[in-house]
Automatic annotation (TrEMBL), chain A:
TM stretches of this protein: 467-489
Region called Disordered, residue ranges: 438-457
PANTHER family: PROTEIN ODR-4 HOMOLOG
Family the entry assigns: Belongs to the ODR-4 family.
Lineage, highest ranks first: Eukaryota, Metazoa, Ecdysozoa, Arthropoda, Hexapoda
Key words, A-Z: Membrane, Transmembrane, Transmembrane helix
Name of this protein: Protein odr-4 homolog
InterPro entries linked: ODR-4-like
Keyword presence, rRNA-binding: no
Location in the cell: Membrane
TrEMBL record, chain B:
SUPFAM superfamilies per record: Cysteine proteinases
Organism encoding this protein: Drosophila navojoa (Fruit fly)
InterPro entries assigned: Papain-like_cys_pep_sf, UFSP1/2_DUB_cat, UFSP2-like_2nd, UFSP2_MPN_N
Primary role: Thiol protease which recognizes and hydrolyzes the peptide bond at the C-terminal Gly of UFM1, a ubiquitin-like modifier protein bound to a number of target proteins. Does not hydrolyze SUMO1 or ISG15 ubiquitin-like proteins.
Protein name, as recorded: Probable Ufm1-specific protease 2
GO molecular function, one term: deUFMylase activity
All copies of domain UFSP1/2/DUB catalytic, residue ranges: 421-605
Swiss-Prot/TrEMBL keywords: Hydrolase, Protease, Thiol protease, Ubl conjugation pathway
Domain UFSP2 second per the UniProt entry, residue ranges: 156-393
Domain UFSP2 N-terminal MPN-like: 1-129
GO biological process: proteolysis
Keyword Protease belongs to the record: yes
C-alpha cells in the first residue's frame, strides 16, 4: 500500500486553512521517494474564489461547490512551477466539519467527481499536460481530507478511469524535516531545425511545438552523468553519495600525503588518477552537478530513413535551460536521471507556452529574421509552511520576460502556491538575458548584407494584446473622423 | 636523436612491384619514444595536382604523410621533393626511401636532418607483429550539413562543422563498456590512471562469450581474442568500436561568473533554398597499443575531422564535375572502409548514395585510385561490394538472417604432400551445402551448391552485388535461355559444369573455361593446370561429370614428383554449419587421387575473373 509522508507543518497548514476559511481546498505538490512512498512537499490552497465571497467565514461550502475549473488551472500552473522531481499529486480539503473526513458520509462521495472533473479538464484543455520524457501516464492521485472538528485526516488513493475509484492509503506525519539532495544541470540548445514546409507563412506556435518534440526525442535518447561520471541506474542515491564521499576522502588524503612528502612523485601521479572529477565539495553546498550527454546521430530511431531535404528557413536555437531538482536519498539513480530530463523538458514547454500565450499573431511575417525571446527561468525558495525550518528549503521556479520585474513572480507564487515571497529573495541569475549577438554574428556570417532584420520581439503578457486593441480603436477613430470630415467637406 | 625506422612487410612487397621510374609519398605512424612505422605509399603523377592531396584523408587518422619514395633514377624535381617535404607536418625529419625498380635490393632509407640526408637502418615488421602491436578505432556518428549547393558554401559549412566537432563537447563511449572518454575529465574507470595504455582499454572490452559466461577474469585472455569478435575479415587487427555522444551541459563557471544566456530562437526565412545533407560517417584511426590512453580523445576527434574532409571533397567534386544545371540536388555521402590484402591497413572512401559504382565518373575515380596506389586496374578493390566486413556486423546480421560459414579451409589439417606447394583460392567465399535455407536438395543439389559457392566468391570479391541465386532462379534461367524444358523448373534434376558456366555468364557476366578429363585417374595430369588457375584467377572451381559435383578450392602440387592433392569443399554435407565438424570429418579438406572415381569422366568449370575495377 502506498504511504504518504507529511511534515508537521503540513498539519499546521491544514489546520490554518480550516480555521481561516472554514472550508478550503487546494492542491498537493509531492515527490515520489520510492515505489510505495510519496512525500508531500507543499500544500497550496486555491484562492480563486476568495474575491467573489464577501465574508469567507460565513459561507457553508461543501465538496460539491468546489470549482473544478479553478482547481485545474491551479494544478496546471503549479506543475509548471515545481522542479522536475516534483509534481501535483492530488487534492486536499480542509474543513471545520467532521463529515469531510468520514468515508461513509454523503460529502465524501462527491470527492470522486471533483477528481474526474479536474483530470478531464486538464487533459482536454492542455496538450502539454502530462508530457514527460517517459511515456507513463499518471493515473493515481492522493486525496487528503482534513476535519478541524475532530482533528482527523482522511487519506485515500484515487485512481482515474471508469468514474474513478478510491482505495486505501497510509499516511504518516514526520517530525524531522525531509532530506533533499539538490542536483543542478544545464542544457545547451544549440540546434538548428530546418523549416521544411515553406509554402505557407511560418507559424511560430507550430514551429515551437516542433522544437519541443525534437528536444523531447533528444532527451529520451540522452544519458546523464553525475559529477562527470556514469552511474548505474539501479544504484540508489544514498549509496551513491556514500561511495562518492569515501572516494573523495581517499583522494583528499592521498593528495595531501603526496603534497607533504614530495619525495615520492610516482605515487602522487598514480593517485591523481584520470578522474579529474570534481568531488562533492562543501563549497557547492552539497549540490551534485549533472551533465546531459546525447548520441551524435542523424536519426535516433531509424538510421535507414535519411535523405537530403530542401528548406528555405531555419529555427536556430541558442542559449540554455537551467535545471535544479531535489531528490530523496531513497530515489534510484534512474529516478534522478529521469527527473533531470523531465525538468529540462518541463521548463522548455513552460517557457514556450508563456511566450506563445503572449503572441498576438502566431505567424512570422515576411521578415528575413525573427528573433523570439521566451521568458527566462528564475528560482525562489518555498518558505516552509508555518514553522521556520530554514536552510533546507526547496526552490520552485517562474518565468520572467526581459524587463519584467520580480514582483510578477511574487504575485504568481501567492496565487498559485499560496506563499508570501520577498521580491528580494528571488534568484534571478540562474539564466542570463539572451544576447542576440549570437544571431547577429551568425547573420553577418551567412547573409552578409541582409538588413531587413526585425528587432527582438518581446511580447508582454496581456499588455501586447491590449495595445493591439488600442491600436485598432485608434485606427477606427481616425477612419471615422476622416469619413466624417469627408462628408463635412462635401456637405 | 634519429627516429627508429620500421617498415611494414606489406609495404615492402608493394614497393617491390613498382617497375617504372616514378616517385611517391610515404605514410607512417609515429609511436613510442621515437619510432616511425612506414605502412603505405602512393604513386605521384609527374604533372598536375599532387595525388597525396587527394588521398591523404582516406587513411585512418594517425597514419600521416611522412616523406617520399623514389623509384629508380627519379630526380628530386621529378619527385616534387620540396613540395612534399614541406607538407610533412608530423615530423621535422621527413623520410626518404630510394628503391630500385622491381627489387628490394639496394633499398636505402634516410631521414632529413636539418636539410641533410642521414642514412638509417630499418627493421621489417611482419603481419603478425603488426596485428599484435597496433589496433584500429572505428567510430560512427552523424551530423546534418545545412548548406547552399555551392562548393564555397559547402567548404564553409564543413569548416564550421569541424570546429564544432573539436569544441571539446564530444564524449566517446567505448562500445559494450561503460568507459567514456571526454575532453575535460579524461577517461573514467577505476583501473585506469594517466599512465594507462590503449592495451589496457582493449583488455576491458568484453567479448560476447565472456558476456555469456559472465567470466570476470578476462584481463590476460581477452586481448588476443578481440579481433575475432571486433576485427575485420582478412586481418587480425583488434578494432575498438566507439560511440559518439555530445555533452549538452556547459561547464559550470566559477562562483561569480555571469550566468549563461537563456534560450532564444531565431527564425530565418531565406530567399534561397538550402539543403540539409545527412552526414552519417564512420571514422577510423590507427593506434599503437602502447600509446597512452590520454591521447585517445584527440585521435578520435582527428579521425572525425578527416572523415568530414573526405565528405567535403566528395560533395564538392561532384558539384564541380556536374555542369551547373538549373537544379542541383546534393547527394548524401557515406563512408566505406576497405582492407585491400596488399595494404595491411584500412583505407576509407566516401561515396555518394544513389551514385552507382558503374557511373562513368565513379569508375574514372576508382581507376585513378588504383593508379595512385599502384594497384592493377584489372580487379576490383574499391567497389562498394569490396567494402570491409567487420566481425561484429557479420555476427549482427547472422542473428537476423542466416549467412553460411566463411573460408572454411582456414585451419584444415595439412595435405601431407612432400615438397609440395599450395595454390589456393584467392579471397573469401561462403560454404554452401545441402539442406541450407530449408531447401530439400539432398541427392540432387550439389552442383547448385557449388555454383552458389562460386557466386559468393564473386560477391565477396566485389565483382557483383547480385544476391546468391537460388535453386529456382538457376532453373528458371536455364529454361529462359532454352537450355532446359519448362518441366525442369521446380524439378530435382542435376546440372553439370556446362550449365554452371552458362549461369555464371548469365548472372555475373563471368566467362568460364571448361576442362574435360576422360577418367578420374587422369586428374593428376591437370594438377599443374589447376595450380596455374589458382595463381592467375584464384576462383573456386566446380568439378562434375559422370558422378557427384564438388568444389575445388586449392591444389598442393609437387613439380618434381608430380604428387598432388586437392582441397575439396564438399556440397554433400547435410549437417549444421559447425566448422569443427566440417573440418574433422573432412567435408572441407585435402583429398588425394583416390578421392575420384577412376572409371568416371570429369568436367571442370573454371571461372575466369572479368577485367573490372
Amino acid at each position: 500500500m502506498r504511504t504518504v509522508l507529511l511534515s508537521k507543518s503540513d498539519e499546521l497548514y491544514l489546520e490554518k486553512c480550516a480555521q481561516e476559511h472554514s472550508f478550503s481546498y487546494g492542491i498537493i505538490i509531492g515527490h515520489q521517494a520510492d515505489v510505495s512512498k510519496s512525500i508531500v512537499v507543499h500544500l497550496a490552497r486555491n484562492s480563486e474564489e476568495d474575491a467573489d465571497l464577501e465574508d469567507l467565514t460565513d459561507v457553508r461550502l461543501t465538496i460539491r461547490d468546489i470549482n473544478s475549473q479553478a482547481l485545474a488551472s491551479q494544478w496546471l500552473s503549479a506543475s509548471k512551477m515545481c522542479p522536475g522531481s516534483f509534481d501535483v499529486i492530488g487534492i486536499f480539503i480542509a474543513s471545520v466539519r467532521p463529515d469531510v473526513a468520514n468515508e461513509r458520509s454523503e460529502e465524501f462521495k462527491n470527492a470522486k467527481k471533483v477528481f474526474s472533473d479536474v483530470y478531464d479538464l486538464l487533459l482536454k484543455t492542455n496538450n502539454s499536460f502530462g508530457v514527460y520524457t517517459t511515456d507513463m501516464a499518471q493515473t493515481d492521485f492522493v486525496f487528503l481530507s482534513y476535519s478541524l472538528a475532530d482533528k482527523t485526516l482522511l487519506c485515500k488513493n484515487y485512481t482515474y478511469g471508469n468514474g474513478g475509484t478510491f482505495s486505501n492509503m497510509d499516511f504518516r506525519f514526520v517530525e524531522k524535516p525531509f532530506e533533499w539532495i539538490q542536483f543542478e544541470c544545464n542544457y545547451d540548445l544549440d540546434d538548428v531545425i530546418p523549416i521544411l514546409d515553406t509554402t505557407r507563412r511560418i507559424n511560430i506556435e507550430e514551429q515551437f511545438q516542433n522544437i519541443i518534440s525534437t528536444i523531447r526525442k533528444y532527451l529520451i535518447a540522452s544519458e546523464v552523468f553525475l559529477q562527470n561520471e556514469l552511474i548505474d541506474d539501479t544504484m540508489d542515491l544514498q549509496t551513491f553519495i556514500k561511495k562518492k564521499k569515501l572516494k573523495d576522502d581517499k583522494l583528499k588524503t592521498s593528495s595531501t600525503t603526496s603534497a607533504g612528502g614530495a619525495a615520492n612523485p610516482s605515487a602522487s601521479s598514480a593517485a591523481s588518477s584520470m578522474h579529474l572529477l570534481s568531488p562533492i565539495e562543501s563549497s557547492n553546498g552539497g549540490v551534485i552537478r549533472a551533465n546531459i550527454i546525447m548520441p551524435v546521430k542523424c536519426q535516433l530511431d531509424d538510421p535507414k530513413d535519411i535523405k537530403v531535404r530542401e528548406f528555405s528557413g531555419t529555427l536556430r536555437m541558442s542559449g540554455m535551460i537551467f535545471s535544479r531538482v531535489y531528490c530523496n536519498p531513497r530515489n534510484s539513480i534512474a529516478d534522478v536521471k529521469r527527473y533531470l530530463r523531465d525538468d529540462v523538458l518541463r521548463s522548455l514547454i513552460t517557457r514556450i507556452q508563456v511566450y506563445c500565450d503572449g503572441l498576438t499573431d502566431p505567424h512570422v511575417n515576411n521578415e528575413a529574421v525573427y528573433i523570439s525571446e521566451p521568458p527566462r527561468r528564475v528560482f525562489f525558495a518555498i518558505p516552509s509552511n508555518g514553522s521556520s525550518t530554514s536552510g533546507n528549503a526547496v526552490q520552485f521556479s517562474e518565468y520572467l520576460f526581459r524587463g519584467e520585474a520580480p514582483t510578477v513572480v511574487v504575485a504568481q507564487a501567492k496565487q498559485v502556491l499560496d506563499v508570501e515571497l520577498d521580491p528580494e529573495t528571488i534568484y534571478l541569475d540562474a539564466e542570463g538575458l539572451p544576447d542576440d549577438v549570437n544571431f547577429n554574428s551568425m547573420q553577418t556570417d551567412t547573409e552578409g548584407e541582409d538588413t531587413r532584420r526585425l528587432t527582438s520581439t518581446m511580447p508582454k503578457r496581456e499588455l501586447s494584446r491590449s495595445l493591439y486593441m488600442v491600436g485598432i480603436a485608434v485606427a477606427l477613430l481616425v477612419l471615422l473622423a476622416s469619413v466624417a470630415l469627408h462628408y463635412a467637406m462635401n456637405g | 636523436m634519429l627516429p627508429k625506422l620500421r617498415i611494414s612487410a606489406f609495404l615492402l612487397k608493394r614497393l617491390e612491384r613498382v617497375k617504372l621510374q616514378c616517385s611517391g609519398c610515404l605514410y607512417g605512424v609515429f609511436y613510442g619514444e621515437s619510432t616511425l612505422l612506414l605502412l603505405s605509399f602512393n604513386v605521384e603523377s609527374s604533372v598536375g595536382q599532387l595525388n597525396y592531396e587527394q588521398i591523404q584523408h582516406k587513411f585512418p587518422a594517425e597514419l600521416d604523410l611522412c616523406g617520399l619514395v623514389k623509384f629508380g633514377d627519379c630526380t628530386d624535381t621529378e619527385a616534387h621533393l620540396n613540395e612534399i617535404i614541406s607538407s610533412v607536418d608530423i615530423t621535422d625529419n621527413p623520410i626518404l626511401l630510394q628503391c630500385q625498380l622491381g627489387t628490394l635490393v639496394g633499398l636505402r632509407a634516410s631521414f632529413f636532418i636539418h636539410g641533410k640526408l642521414e642514412n638509417v637502418p630499418f627493421e621489417v615488421v611482419e603481419a603478425a607483429q603488426l596485428y599484435n602491436d597496433f589496433c584500429f578505432t572505428r567510430l560512427k556518428c552523424g551530423f546534418f550539413l545545412h548548406t547552399l549547393p555551392t562548393p564555397e558554401a559547402i567548404a564553409k559549412e564543413m569548416h564550421a562543422l569541424r570546429k564544432r566537432v573539436a569544441d571539446g563537447n564530444l564524449v566517446f563511449n567505448v562500445a559494450h563498456t561503460k568507459i567514456y572518454v571526454s575532453s575535460n575529465s579524461g577517461i573514467q574507470h577505476q583501473s585506469f590512471n594517466c599512465d594507462s595504455l590503449i592495451e589496457q582499454l582493449i583488455a576491458e572490452i568484453p567479448t560476447p562469450t565472456e558476456a555469456a559466461s559472465g567470466d570476470k577474469k578476462k584481463k590476460a585472455a581477452a586481448a588476443p581474442d578481440l579481433a575475432k569478435y571486433y576485427g575485420a575479415v582478412g586481418c587480425a587487427y583488434d578494432v575498438i568500436n566507439i560511440d559518439v555522444l555530445r555533452s549538452r551541459t556547459r561547464d559550470f563557471g566559477a562562483g561569480d561568473s555571469l550566468p549563461y544566456p537563456a534560450l532564444s530562437v531565431c527564425i530565418t526565412n531565406e530567399d534561397t533554398v538550402k539543403q540539409e545533407v545527412p552526414l552519417e560517417l564512420e571514422a577510423m584511426a590507427i593506434l599503437c597499443k602502447k600509446t597512452k590512453l590520454l591521447r585517445l580523445y584527440d585521435v578520435l576527434i582527428e579521425s572525425i575531422c578527416r572523415s568530414l574532409r573526405l565528405f567535403e571533397q566528395c560533395l564538392i567534386e561532384r558539384l564541380t564535375e556536374q555542369e551547373t544545371t538549373s537544379e542541383v540536388k546534393l547527394l548524401s555521402p557515406r563512408t566505406y572502409h576497405f582492407y585491400p590484402q596488399e595494404f595491411g591497413h584500412f583505407l576509407s572512401c566516401a561515396y555518394l548514395e544513389q551514385l552507382g559504382d558503374d557511373e562513368p565518373s565513379v569508375q574514372e575515380k576508382r581507376k585513378r585510385l588504383h593508379r595512385q596506389f599502384a594497384l592493377p586496374a584489372t580487379r576490383p578493390y574499391f567497389r562498394r561490394a569490396n567494402q570491409c566486413r567487420f566481425q561484429d556486423e557479420i555476427d549482427a546480421v547472422d542473428s537476423a538472417t542466416w549467412t553460411p560459414l566463411l573460408n572454411t579451409h582456414l585451419g584444415v589439417r595439412p595435405s601431407g604432400v612432400t615438397d609440395g606447394k599450395e595454390y589456393l583460392v584467392n579471397g573469401n567465399y561462403h560454404y554452401y551445402h545441402y539442406l541450407q535455407q530449408q531447401v530439400q536438395d539432398k541427392g540432387w543439389g550439389c552442383a547448385y551448391r557449388s555454383l552458389q559457392t562460386i557466386c559468393s566468391w564473386f560477391l565477396l570479391q566485389g565483382y557483383t552485388e547480385r544476391p546468391i541465386p537460388t535453386h529456382l532462379e538457376i532453373q528458371e534461367y536455364l529454361h529462359k535461355i532454352n537450355d532446359k524444358p519448362a518441366s525442369f523448373v521446380g524439378s530435382s534434376q542435376w546440372i553439370g559444369s556446362t550449365e554452371l558456366s552458362m549461369c555464371l555468364q548469365g548472372f555475373l557476366n563471368v566467362d568460364s573455361k571448361i576442362l574435360h578429363v576422360a577418367s578420374g585417374a587422369e586428374l593428376s595430369t591437370i594438377a599443374s593446370e589447376l595450380a596455374m588457375h589458382f595463381q592467375t584467377q584464384g576462383t573456386p572451381v566446380m568439378i562434375g561429370g559422370g558422378v557427384l559435383a564438388h568444389t575445388i578450392i586449392g591444389v598442393d602440387y609437387c613439380v618434381q614428383t608430380g604428387q598432388a592433392k586437392f582441397l575439396i569443399l564438399d556440397p554433400h554435407y547435410t549437417g549444421p554449419d559447425d566448422l569443427a565438424t566440417i573440418q574433422i570429418k573432412g567435408w572441407c579438406g585435402w583429398k588425394g587421387l583416390d578421392f575420384w572415381d577412376k572409371k568416371s569422366y570429369y568436367n571442370l568449370c573454371m571461372p575466369q575473373r572479368p577485367i573490372l575495377y
